[in-house]
Amino acid sequence: MKILIAAAGSRGDVAPYTGLGARLAAAGHEVALATGEVFAPLVREAGLEFRPLPADPRGAGPAGTKRELMATAAAFMRRLATGMKGAAADGTELMLLSATTAPLGWQLAEATGVPAMGAYLVPTEPTGAFPPVVGGTRSLGRFGNRALGRLSLRITDRLFADAVRDLRADLGLPQIPPGAVRRRQEAANRPILYGFSEVLVPRPSDWREGLTVTGNWWPYHDDDFPLPSDVEDFLAAGPPPVLVGFGSMPADDAERLSELAVAALRRAGVRGILQSGRAGLAASGADVLTVGDLPHAVLFPRLAAVVHHAGAGTAAATLRAGVPSVPVPVMADQPFWAARLTALGAAPRPVPFAALTAERLGDAIKCVVTGPVTGPSYADAARAAARLMAGEDGAGRVVEAVEGLAWG
């Protein structure tokens, strides 16, 4: 089967689909991954066909009024719609759509008759179990959570309204609101696969039929990938270090943030690794090393703890490795995943990025490494989660779902 996976966003929004695509390819399918040009090397390294999308929104910063941010997002969606139409050509027989590309992919499926399946990294369906992942972490009760979840979907519909209108006109489809398309998908119980673990987010009991939590889809990496020699030397030179990294999150002052991170590590009395990432962290010394992108699956098991921005993929990777976290959420769904790690006992209370100081971060690192005064340690909770996650095969369940398609 010729399968197109379409994903847009930051590295964390794209990388899991490289592992998923590689697993589908290993099962005998022809797999292309359409995403931003910046991620082409990741796609090709996984052995997948790369198809370009204008799908990297990093040029838009977080500043601006609510109206300006909405306008920027809507313009991005319109560019994405144009790219989606081209990417889905050339004999595609199935589309797997991320949460960002799905509102556009459903239009293509209607126009072409090519089946489409949602493949999302975060829970999007309204539920009484928790508020929407970008709506804060405070529960409003079952009724309030569901109401806020429905409002969140309507806001998403508004963001895509112009892009959907233009795409439907280009495809020769009658004009209907994007919310109507989504509701039609829901009424038909069209399947959506969720690539996260029930260890972190159990499937809500009030979700409709057709919504499946498969377990995580892990980014592709070569099983024989060796850590660089300087990393191996640093790991061998003392006790397991603590990694500090913020992934795709930018920083206004990389030098200040780097100094803060080093001061926090030394306050906690631990060795550290700074992962440069988009924030540009950098420092050197006998007790600290700076690294670039390294596979979480290879590096994380060698660490004492990880300080991170609590993106969905990084949060799950710490648990998979059985190491505790110090979550420092920045934006979007990160407070949600940070709170999940805390509730699981694998992390202390999050330290919001906006309130980050060397003192607060250092004390949190020391607490994680030494353990709480009473009760199980954060490391114990992380290791327990790792044992449960080891029994999951998220990509394998997607392969089963793809090969068992039975809708028209």
Automatic annotation (TrEMBL):
<dbReference type="InterPro" id="IPR002213">
    <property type="entry name" value="UDP_glucos_trans"/>
</dbReference>
<dbReference type="InterPro" id="IPR050426">
    <property type="entry name" value="Glycosyltransferase_28"/>
</dbReference>
<feature type="domain" description="Erythromycin biosynthesis protein CIII-like C-terminal">
    <location>
        <begin position="279"/>
        <end position="390"/>
    </location>
</feature>
<keyword id="KW-0808">Transferase</keyword>
<dbReference type="Pfam" id="PF06722">
    <property type="entry name" value="EryCIII-like_C"/>
</dbReference>
<dbReference type="InterPro" id="IPR010610">
    <property type="entry name" value="EryCIII-like_C"/>
</dbReference>
<protein>
    <submittedName>
        <fullName>Glycosyltransferase</fullName>
    </submittedName>
</protein>
<dbReference type="InterPro" id="IPR004276">
    <property type="entry name" value="GlycoTrans_28_N"/>
</dbReference>
<dbReference type="Pfam" id="PF03033">
    <property type="entry name" value="Glyco_transf_28"/>
</dbReference>
<feature type="domain" description="Glycosyltransferase family 28 N-terminal">
    <location>
        <begin position="3"/>
        <end position="64"/>
    </location>
</feature>
